[in-house]
Specification:
20-stranded mixed beta sheet; Cathepsin D, subunit A, domain 1; 4 domains; alpha+beta; 34 strands; outer membrane lipoprotein receptor (LolB), chain A; 14-stranded mixed beta sheet; Serine Threonine Protein Phosphatase 5, Tetratricopeptide repeat
Length: about 725
Amino acid sequence: MLSRTMVNLRHLLLATLAAGPACMHVEAPSAAPENAAPATDEGAILARYVEALGGRAALESVEALTVEARLSIPADEGCTKDRNDCLATPQRGTFTLVTTADGRMYRRSVLGDTVEERGYDGTTGWQTLPDGAVRLDAPDERIATAEDARLHWYLDPEARGIETKALGVRDVATDDATTRPLVGLSWKVPGLAGPAKELWFDPQTGLLVEEVVRDGEGDEGAVQTIRYLHYRRVAGIAVADDIELETRIGDQSRVVHFVVTRIDTTSPDPSIFAVPTPVPRPMVDAEALVLASARAAASAAPKDASAQAAWARAAYNIGRFDEARRAAEATLRLDPEDAEALFIAATVDLAAGDLRAAKRRLDAARSAGLHPGRLAVLEAALASHRKDAEGLARAHQAAADHGAPPLHRLLATRFAALTGTIDRVTGRACATEIAMVRTAPAPIFHVRIDGREIPAILDTGAADLILDAAHADALGLVRLVRDRLPGGQEVSYGRVERVELGSLAVENVPIEVFPEGRLTEMAGLEASEADDGATVGAIVGLRMLSDLQITFDVPGKRLRLVQETRRCRKALAEGRTGAPIPVWVHDSHYAYVEGAMGEGAPGLWLLNTGMRGMDVAASRAAYARARIAPPIIDPRRPVTVTVGRLQLGPVALADLSGAYGYFERDRTAGGFRIEGMVGHLALADRPWTLSFRRRTLYVPEAPTAATSSPGSDT
């Protein structure tokens, strides 16, 4: 579909468009004698072109032009409908272009269900995106858009700083197997990246025949050629009404054909050029409809195991864990060896923290023939919750051996280098409080790792301790396993003996080592802040703290940790204030809460204190289901929407900032849907508590002040 980066579309269906490489179908004014030498000077070529179009006076009398056309794309020869690398059936659509003499533009292309719009109001360029968002031009894009919008682009190019250069004469083939000459010039817009465009004219008529735009070189280089096959006269000027656009990449090409159906020179409604305001786009939640249908079918046939199993799958797929467990149990009462129901029940048991029930389900699933790879992934999660290094190594190896992603083989190697119980909490105190040394852009506190004090952040989206390479080197840590991050930077794995958190400690801690400075960057600290000593040397993950109750108190500038043991009941109760919200912990550490955003139905949200700068981040589909309008996207600024309401259990969070376009993985490795992530800023106005053991998040309805000073122990 007409790539704007390759073609200045002002020449498609503009008053400047002229005839093509075949013979001219309308007599052009002031035709040169057949034996006359063609004008090859760039100034003479353009002057001849202006005259061929109708002359300067006639052109300047046209202040606006609207052109509507049919577009068609032929099918690729030999392509069949079962292939997705070619076009099996012809495509047809429409194209509308409105430009004005004062440099405004509106363009609309429709092909099948795809609608693209672009505009320029004289100052700001914009385009609509498939999800309904509106993207503003970046500064360099604005240069191209402003040139696209210029109706009479050929007048006074030197005043705009356009660089032109004569390209001489070249011969082109004609329909009757002969050749004819074309004269050319290059056209370079100042400030616009990429090579100059080539314009080729018929020396006899003076009219534009071809535009050629090149991008890249070699087999990956692309060439777009616009050929003007016919034109007619409207309001005293020549307007092309038959145009062909060919895009060629290597030995592959695609041709789009435009046939003009309407030309209008009256002034358009000026509102069409303005940046549009996005509106919520209706979206049918197909998975919710599947669940409703499956639920009704299961209710109508309570003795039908297959109906109950279909209900369980539908509930699990959409992240309704309570309902999925009920449906799986209904299935298993009718068919105790249904492997899929056992998988769903075991997954939910693990997420709810019922490890004994999960183990029984897994044993039954093995006997029922559940795929060994799927079984091993769940056994790895069970070993993680039990903090069993050897069990983790065995389960990840089994998963890798039975087709699970390559990450499992890496994890198997990593945990095979460890022994015993990992992340073991020690210390006589029931509770400890750690002061936050700063709260923005992320709360930072200090930990001691093997005796070295290091600034850290708590990231519930991470599993283990992540350490900056500079601190790892200073500690002399042995790198047991090495890998690479996306982009090529090295990450390695090892262990530390002891991490001190106030008066408590965690021992035998698996670590990941990231490149120097990467953690500070991930925490959102600017280079100037890092120069002033504000750095992050460690990230504390959730599995490392899973035997502790965590109170995250940004207003009080403290982190309170309590051992989740019977002897610490009183200290635990002190943090369990506010509304209790169930938490589901999937895999090793991912903590999900159920929430409903806007007008959307409840779904699962990842609790991610490592997310910075925004209250929440959701997928485009989740925003659409919530009836939240897409944003106007300015490439120079973060892309955000306003979330009027996010309901977490009985707690309503209002007027939240939502990151848009950053979170698009709306399904987990376990196969269930998630809506997005809730960051620490969404709850930064109040202390909140996460009990990993109870699988509960405690959130006060209204902000409350801290009740004790940071840094104390009980």
